[in-house]
Specification:
Layout: H1 3-10, E1 15-16, E2 20-25, E3 28-36, E4 41-50, E5 54-62, H2 76-96
Antiparallel strand pairs: 1-3, 2-3, 3-4, 4-5
């Protein structure tokens, strides 16, 4: 089962802007800014700090299955943080209403 398939299994109807941060190292950050599981869409904001060039921000959209920009591209730790963040957001919404 791919990571995209697992995400579909756990959150089949999720649509939103979760803003979940997945930190790679001290110089870069990856944030899931938009996720639409039913429409197979994910948008990720990357920030990279370069001493010479300063801060670089890039937002990329992809399908969940994309091996270079989608969920399948996440390493195990990044995927774990995404799933934990989605569960946390889901529970906060349930408890709020």
């Amino acid at each position: 089962m791919t990571k995209a398939d697992k995400l579909r299994e756990l959150f089949p109807n999720y649509v939103g802007s979760p803003g979940i941060e997945v930190i790679e190292d001290d110089d870069s950050l990856k944030v899931v800014t938009y996720l639409n599981v039913p429409k197979n869409r994910i948008e990720i904001m990357w920030t990279n700090w370069d001493e010479g060039a300063g801060l670089h921000v890039d937002i990329e959209g992809a399908t969940l299955d994309d091996a270079s920009d989608g969920v399948n591209e996440f390493d195990d730790n990044e995927f774990k943080l995404l799933i934990q963040g989605l569960y946390k957001k889901q529970n906060l919404l349930r408890n709020h209403f």
